[in-house]
Amino acid sequence: FQRLQERLGKTRDSFVYQLDRLFLGKKEIDQELFEQLEELLITSDLGVGTTLDLLDIARKKVKREQLRDPQSLKSIIRDQILTYIEASEQPAELVMPEEGPFVIMVVGVNGVGKTTTIGKLAAKFIRSGQSVLLVAADTFRAAAINQLKIWGDRVGAEVTARSPGADPSSVVFDGLEYGVARAFDVIIIDTAGRLHTSVNLMAELKKIRRVIDKKMPGAPHEVMLVLDATTGQNGVSQAKLFHEAVGISGLALTKLDGTAKGGIIANVCREMKIPVRFIGIGEQMNDLRDFNAREFVDALFF
Ligand code: GDP
């Protein structure tokens, strides 16, 4: 918990510190406080929609319960942020199938930390005694294939890959065949993320999804979108784009250690209703944490 708190330092320093300062200077809840709050919440990347919704809920509650103490408003804000983060309908933990390999398709824009997250995720499974196969279906960039191999070596996961330029769907097809034949527990598929040709990219991802489902009905069991917390509101539009194309079932939010924009998590959750599975709080192998909404909000606010 302490480590999480430490790593969320930037968001704490900007958002929560400023929040505290705002409240400390106040004896009563007044209109000015709401206005200052609005500005602070929007600049912390909570997003305009979520900010207005949050303040509307807070105003009503303050009025209904005739609250005056600014600290009670602060609690309302904290509780409501937690409600947003918990809003997804699915459980936050990954549910593994009873039989056969657990197939995870990982999507996301280049640079968000997709390969790193896959490596960390593989390490997590391996630590818990499961065998992991990584499938290098981002055949667009030679560097992506190499990066995945480096992570595979580092964490002890096997990697199936072909040369750059190979057809991604057939890499996936072969990967699944190999993974099933060798009875891997977990198969993680890395995909391309070149957003400058987003139409082609989405078509490619849809095709990969179809191939997986055809080869192994019911799979992928998880389509995980990796989002970079430092991109702020851009992350929400990315999420929508990928969700429309392939249907996202879980999120990994990276680089929370490097940003003051941790508020984005509440906005993404409220807008998408998709559970955050993991958060990235550093570049090392162990810097991927299972996401727990309450722990996260506590780490931010206390
Ligand atoms: P990809 O293009 O999406 O596969 O991105 P990479 O996995 O290559 O990551 C891009 C950069 O982000 C690398 O320098 C990673 O070390 C870094 N990175 C990934 N996750 C995190 C994180 O949680 N925290 C920090 N600080 N850096 C991260």
Automatic annotation (TrEMBL):
EC number per UniProt: 3.6.5.4
Location within or outside the cell: Cell membrane; Cytoplasm
Keywords, ordered alphabetically: Cell membrane, Cytoplasm, GTP-binding, Hydrolase, Membrane, Nucleotide-binding, Receptor
Annotated catalysed reactions: GTP + H2O = GDP + phosphate + H(+)
Swiss-Prot/TrEMBL GO biological process terms: SRP-dependent cotranslational protein targeting to membrane
GO molecular function: GTP binding; GTPase activity; signal recognition particle binding
Topology within the bilayer: Peripheral membrane protein
Signal sequence segment: none
GO CC, any one term: cytoplasm
Binding, GTP: 108-115, 190-194, 254-257
Segments forming domain SRP54-type proteins GTP-binding: 275-288
Domain of life assignment: Bacteria
Known partners and oligomeric status: Part of the signal recognition particle protein translocation system, which is composed of SRP and FtsY.
Function in brief: Involved in targeting and insertion of nascent membrane proteins into the cytoplasmic membrane. Acts as a receptor for the complex formed by the signal recognition particle (SRP) and the ribosome-nascent chain (RNC). Interaction with SRP-RNC leads to the transfer of the RNC complex to the Sec translocase for insertion into the membrane, the hydrolysis of GTP by both Ffh and FtsY, and the dissociation of the SRP-FtsY complex into the individual components.
Family: Belongs to the GTP-binding SRP family. FtsY subfamily.
Protein name in UniProt: Signal recognition particle receptor FtsY
Source organism of the structure: Desulfobulbus oligotrophicus
Organism lineage: Bacteria, Pseudomonadati, Thermodesulfobacteriota, Desulfobulbia, Desulfobulbales
Shown chain mapped onto the complete sequence: 266 to 567 of 572
